[in-house]
Amino acid sequence: MAQARQPSLLQWFAESAQALVIVRVKKMSNVIVLGAQWGDEGKGKVVDLLAERFDIVARYQGGHNAGHTVFIGEKKFVLKLIPSGILRPGVEAVIGNGVVVDLAALIEEMAALEAHGIEVRRHLRISNRAHVIFPFHRLIEKMSEARENRIPIGTTSRGIGPCYEDKIGRRGIRIADLFDSESFRILYDTLAEDKKTLAETFQLHDTIDYTRICQQYLEYADRIRPLVCDTAALLNGAMARGKRILFEGAQGTMLDIDHGTYPFVTSSSAAAGGASTGTGVPPTAIHGVIGVSKAYITRVGSGPFPSESNDGGGELLRREGNEFGAVTGRPRRCGWFDVPLLRYTAMVNGFDTLVITKLDVLDLLEQIPVCARYRLRGADVTEMPATYRALEEIEPVFETLPGWRTSTRNFGRYDELPEPARAYLRFLEERTGVEIGGVSTGPERNETIIKAGSKLERLIA
Ligand code: GDP
Ligand code: IMO
Ligand code: MG
């Protein structure tokens, strides 16, 4: 019998070192990129930029209420349901179980991307457990938004909330249900009956052709069938083979159903915890969280906004930052960077690092206000208030930093940025307690600086 050869000490050392390197690389493999404010922070751009270092980009919540803008040269893409990673050749894109899917919107988005030569069918996979948005969900949303004695949330009118309501109410329809037409019809009829009753009760003029929709959705299901699978099994299997996953958040932490400015929020878990429940990847397999924040702040829709600027400052940010919704075209409300808010979102997400976007939008300013603290009824506020009423009463305490009045676009390195811009970033870093690992100074891929030696650099290495 052949004797196993004893490794030499040198060989043993080399192998152990290699194993260590593998463990180190594996330790940093899967990261979440998510919004640290109220959405539209530039997640699409950041995900697109980082995606080339990952094998899979997975969306874990939300639906086509998201609008993630990516510029590649002259081409502009606005991704709604499909993860931004789809734009990178060779990267797989996954729509996880936590996402709500409007099949008509999905098919339309797929066609638009295919028209640009993107091989969507080859690279996209959709969870069989994701819930389906039907046209009657939009109807229910309209009813809820118009309800007397209720302040409208200013939703995107995509049926997101009512679809999640059905999910949590355990009467929703999942993509897997569409493939058994008999049982689908039973589920669908029951759900449709509920909606008809609601519409009647609230005297809502309902023009929905329920029978046609049922048939149409069965047809849609046939078209996407080859892309549907158990994506939790797919992702866990891929990780076992050493593949890296980037989790792409939609909306922002302040729109999270639990941690946001309730009830002026969306209906899903946009914060980091959602990445695990929304994909079936265990929390222990996720190694880092990257927060994306603007150098100022915006919000679309109603709800409290302590650092909002309703004067010329806000106007300037809207104009220079082209702050109009990517999905609805609504003007975004604009305000100054909010330190307490960022400290709060850093706490609930455990940000390892931040990417600050749209620094260039501040280029013209002589002075830049930053909301450094909150006061409420004459006292300092140390915790984020739970009610929107308290948040509406917050008195923001601003500090003013000098501007740089020069363009920050086209800088390749962090230390090349003008000193006042670096001082501004240092201030944000010190006050929020989170490192700023990346800075974006324009919408294009190459207008991003990753700080040498930062945690961000190590996370994506
Ligand atoms: P997302 O929803 O977080 O992906 O963000 P949106 O796409 O809704 O909004 C961000 C907008 O800012 C888009 O129009 C981007 O093209 C643009 N953008 C991203 N980063 C920068 C930046 O650093 N500077 C400027 N001027 N625009 C940026
Ligand atoms: P991305 O991914 C900004 C806001 C809506 C509304 C609230 C609830 O592009 O950052 P919903 O339709 O979700 O029930 O609306 O949430 N909202 C967003 N605001 N960016 C988004 O997505 C948003 N998605 C939803 O304006 O105030
Ligand atoms: Mg957006």
Structural key phrases:
461 residues; alpha/beta; 10-stranded mixed β-sheet; 3-stranded antiparallel β-sheet; 35% helix; disordered N terminus; binds guanosine-5'-diphosphate; binds 6-O-phosphoryl inosine monophosphate; binds magnesium ion
Biggest β-sheet strands, sense, barrel: 10 strands, mixed
E-strand count: 19
Helix content: 25-40%
Low-confidence stretches: 1-5, 18-27
**Neighbour order of strands in the largest sheet:** 9-7-5-2-10-1-11-14-18-19
Tell me, briefly, the overall form: globular
Give the overall average pLDDT: 93
* Derived structural class: alpha/beta
Explain this structure.
- The protein contains 15 helices and 19 strands.
- The strands form five sheets. A ten-stranded mixed β-sheet has the order 9-7-5-2-10-1-11-14-18-19, with helices on both faces. It has a three-stranded antiparallel β-sheet with strand order 16-15-17.
- The protein is α/β, with parallel strands linked by helices and 461 residues long.
- The chain has helices spanning 9-27, 43-51, 103-114, 120-123, 135-146, 160-168, 181-201, 210-224, 231-240, 273-277, 312-320, 339-349, 388-393, 419-432, 455-460, and strands at 31-35, 56-59, 68-72, 75-79, 92-95, 100-102, 124-127, 131-133, 228-229, 245-248, 288-294, 297-299, 333-335, 353-357, 367-376, 379-380, 395-402, 436-440, 448-450.
- Helix 5 (135-146) crosses helix 6 and helix 5 packs parallel to helix 7.
- The model is unreliable at 1-5 and 18-27 (pLDDT under 50).
- The longest helix is centred in the middle third of the chain and has 21 residues, at 181-201.
- The protein binds guanosine-5'-diphosphate (GDP), 6-O-phosphoryl inosine monophosphate and magnesium ion.
- The site of magnesium ion (MG) has 6 residues, from loops.
